[in-house]
Here is the input.
Amino acid sequence: MKKGDNNSETFDLRRKYAKKLLFLIGTLVIINFISLFVYASQKNMIDLNFNYDFKFKLPTPKSETETPGFVEGKTCEDGTALNECSEKKPLFCYNGQLLEKAHTCGCPEGLKINFQSCEK
Here is the structure.
């Protein structure tokens, strides 16, 4: 056995283990992402069925000179001033419309904030 053959075998062995190690690390990363995705779906952080219902829609300006969210002297149907929280939480008066905005206005007692709405 020549001296050079031993070095070559050691290099091949190291290369073999390096490939196995990279494969193992890649597998662990994939498993980590899958478990994170499953955890988030169980905690209702994401919807696996992709059933997203976006209720919060801002009105579009009627002209380029109209500023969305501000019309002087205008109030919402319950008498709330523009850009103010209504007495009926979590409603917020925006451009003459009452919109749910729990993060800003809060929720009634006994309910907790879920993004912009309130839930039990």
Summary: The helical segments are 3-42, 102-105. The chain has two helices and four strands.
